[in-house]
Amino acid sequence: MQLTIDSVSLEYATGFRALTDVNLNLSKGLFGLLGQNGAGKSSLMRTLATLQVPTSGTILFDGMDIHEHPLQFRQLLGYLPQEFGVYPTATAEQLLTQIADLKGIDDRHVRTAVVEQMLQRVNLWDVRRRAMSRFSGGMLRRFGIAQALIANPKVVIVDEPTAGLDPAERNRLYDLLAETGETAIVLLSTHLVEDVNTLCQQMVILGQGRVLVSGEPTQLIDRYHGQLWEEKIQRNQLATYQRQFPVIAHRYVSGQLMVTLLNKKPSPLGRAKTPTLEDVYFATLFTHSLPSV
Ligand SMILES: Nc1ncnc2c1ncn2[C@@H]1O[C@H](COP(=O)(O)OP(=O)(O)OP(=O)(O)O)[C@@H](O)[C@H]1O
User: What is the ipTM of this complex?
Assistant: First the structure.
């Protein structure tokens, strides 16, 4: 199973270029897509979901051009968009049954069983007959996940799936996505480096519509060994530090401001820092001169 994104660029009608020459190879498992607001994550996902056609380049699923055969590809696809709406008067059970039907589960008994199993998995079984207008934000998101995962899709695209979920729900979603990744290609976009750290075997960081870096999280982290330094400073020193030193990020630790510096040579400042995936993210933005702090 292989999804190949080959030299994909996307220009909107406004003339804005949201994606430039994106090349990626996705195979079975979880693939994390990180990037700042406006980096192009949703644009890439909508293009993969065949809702937009690239201006140039191709996307192949096991050799099939997905934009030449969108209906065929959609049968294999589960997609959770960032903005997810439902018919307010429908119940979760009704809508999921319809979606299962559209995805080609023709046998009524099989459909009923599949819908029940999915409602149980996303913990909506008890509220399956409630109008979805009365669902909380977390319940709606779980429904969105259920409709994306129903009918064993081969490719699952989930845009910011953990947004608005409490920690327990987020853990349940991690379980579901990890299980799905055993049999499908799962691409998930997120603002949270922690999501990628927890779940993904592969990742990519997008910036201004381009792939800045891609690879295995652990290998990307290893690249920064011996290059990161951290130091506690006063809040009013921050601007000076940012001007004078390669500050890639700052954060508060017990109310104390701590800066992280990227320097290949031992730094006269601070002490050596063990790199994390968050450092990879900030260091990547920093080296591409994108604002990160
Ligand atoms: N339909 C559109 N027409 C014109 N420009 C668009 C359109 N959709 C998105 N854009 C622009 O393309 C760029 C990328 O947007 P996109 O939504 O793909 O980013 P993102 O990485 O998903 O951001 P976020 O994390 O905020 O969701 C942004 O500058 C956005 O304003």
Answer: 0.96
Residue 207: CB within 6 Å of ligand 1?
no
Whole-number Cα distances in Å, 283 to 60, 172, 215, 221, 259? 32, 31, 15, 10, 12
Give the residue among 137, 140, 95, 97 at the shortest CA–CA distance from 122. 140
Sign of the torsion formed by the C-alpha atoms of 128, 78, 10 and 39: positive
Beta carbons of 259 and 238 less than 8 angstroms apart: yes
Q: Is the dihedral of CA 256, 257, 262, 264 positive or negative?
A: negative
14 lines ligand 1 (CB under 6 A): yes
Is the CB of residue 35 below 6 angstroms from any atom belonging to ligand 1? yes
Q: Mean pLDDT for each consecutive 10-residue tract of the chain (293 residues)?
A: 98 97 97 94 96 97 97 94 82 94 92 96 94 89 92 94 84 89 95 86 96 96 94 92 91 92 78 94 92 61
Decide: 41 in ligand 1 pocket, CB within 6 A: yes
Out of 34, 43, 44, 285, give the residue to mutate to test ligand 1, the one with the largest number of ligand atoms within 8 Å of its CB: 43
Q: Find where tokens 């109008």 sit.
A: 131
**Half-sphere exposure in the Cβ direction for 105 (13 Å, CA):** 18
From the alpha carbon of 82, which atom of ligand 1 is closest? 27
The response to whether residue 37 sits with its C-beta less than 6 Å from ligand 1 reads: yes
Query: What is the rounded distance in angstroms from the CA atom of residue 104 to the CA atom of residue 50?
Result: 18
